[in-house]
Amino acid sequence: MTRYSRRNFLKTGAGAGAAALFAGGLTPRSAASAGSPAAAPGTPRVVSSGNGIRATAKAMDVLRAGGDPLDAVIAGVNIVEDDPEDMSVGYGGLPNEDGVVELDSSVMYGPTHSAGAVAALRNIKNPSQVARLVMERTDHVLIVGEGALKFAKAHGFKEEDLLTEKSRAAWLRWKETMSDRDNWFPPKTESLPEDLRSVMSTHGTINCIAIDAAGRLAGVTTTSGLSWKIAGRVGDSPIIGAGLYVDNEIGAAGSTGRGEANLLTCASYRIVDAMGRGKSPEQACLEACEAVVAKTKLVPRLCDDQGRPNFGLDFYALNKKGEFGSAGFYQGGKYAVHDGVENKLRDVAYLFKRREGDR
Ligand code: GLY
Q1: Is 205 a known active-site residue?
Q2: Is residue 179 in some structural domain?
Q3: Which of 73, 113, 234, 266 has the most beta carbons within 10 angstroms of its beta carbon?
Q4: How far is CA 347 from the centre of its chain?
Q5: What is the model's pTM?
Q6: Which of 94, 208, 226, 234 has the most ligand 1 atoms within 8 A of CB, as the residue to mutate?
């Protein structure tokens, strides 16, 4: 639920590199974190977005018990899909402009190089499980909307209302305060908790990628997508190559944040490809950020007064050696890693420092 409108970049350090970028030179720039060492052979590792610390813990439990990496990452994100307090994923996710929760998810499994995905799926709390069934029980990769719901029901999933009181109240506030030229009036006294009052546009999501002791890679991305979106809008999360990509010979990558920007960049595929050409996971994620920044410059409405993206988009990567990394545009992001020894949040590498006073 972070808003990016008041951020700035420094004229030194990371900002100097960014200046080169804006001048047209795509120079790699400094990062907030130092990347990661390779894992000792046979060490499982799990990487997730900042909202995934419980997912990485759960996934590591599954891997340590000898479980499959796809079982592990799906079990991990199911915790967040089921949690009404995470308003960016699954149950309790923020709805579309009509007040209906629509979910997107994809899974990809390295050993068989197969993938499955669902998009604009309504009334089913765990779209990641449905995405897996698309992969395992159909000849398709992506099923959307009504078809995805019918498919889920055919496999025994029960329909339920995914809108919680909290997400309904946030949606109603958005609806009532959107315009003073319509027929909706805001309440006379504020009834929403403060943290929800500034919820104008979010792209929250969870990505989780893992490697097991045998070197098998798998990943999942799941989301309720952009809040207040036009019904039927699909983001990057269910698009293989954008919100998720896995190549068992190289590594895995995924994303959270503004899906439209990623759909125009296909960053997860780029990141895996870059790792295949020898880039570290962190370098590969930073390069993807640079690519998005370069294209975003062409769209003034998506830029702040210094030509930087006025939105967020973060990438996560894990290679075959167990090295991991993450990058986003702005300083301050965290991502979750279980490195086989400890499970903790780490700093996301970044292109731009925040200005003094930015949130
Ligand atoms: N990255 C999630 C979305 O834009 O839907």
Answers
A1: yes
A2: no
A3: 73
A4: 16
A5: 0.89
A6: 226
